[in-house]
Input
Amino acid sequence: MQKIHGAALITGGGRGLGLAFAHEAAQCCSHLILVNMSIENLMLAKADLERLYEVSVHVFVQDLSVPDAADTLYSKVQALGIPIAVLINNAGIGQYGPFHELPWESHKRLIDLNMIALSHLTHVFLQDMIQRKQGMILNVSSVAAFVPGPLMASYYASKAFVLSFSLALSSELKDTGVSCTVLCPGPTQTGFMKNQGQDTWLAKRNLLATAESVAKLGFEGMLKRKMLVVPGLINNFVVRLSSLVPPTWGSTLLHFLQKRNRA
Output
């Protein structure tokens, strides 16, 4: 794997897919910066990564959904004096249930984290990357970005934003030395839905992709400066099918499948 000069900054880096990204980055970066809300997860990740690889791991406890979180994190990273060569915007949350039945605060926090924090972090770190004429950004979206998502309306919409934003940014960055890749995985073994109090049909039957395999494909795609990475044949089929089915049909079908998936 190619060596990268500078640090890899990974949000949501203490567990799940973020930790899997950290293991990929540790093989080519001398410094990792992990951001998470759990100091316990961060310290465990730091100890494990520094034991396995020749890497220095810096950790920051930060709730990225609060106002000015991106500026606060940027200041902390600047104080380290290490340029950010790789930015992986992985932090995100979901929720399940009819839109009107869920409290507005839960929708707002999802929007603030999945959309606002991601775009704000990209904006503040991108300035330095463009000035140095080098850098790579990997934004984590989902196959959910390609269809409307009844019973997870805010989550699906937030991932559609990440997809559209990332593809547009990727084109804007052409010839700057900086790239933006968007990763759109399907259901993955990260504990994501269990955190929402839901065990899906796929999870119960152990049919989810592993975080390690998804992170590997996403990281390799970023190194190759691809615009879009969709892991897995089934997920690629779903993406292609979504372009052929009218969105009204897709929404109705997905509403049925969402309810069946959690039956």
User: Anything to note?
Assistant: The chain has nine helices and nine strands. The radius of gyration is 18 Å.
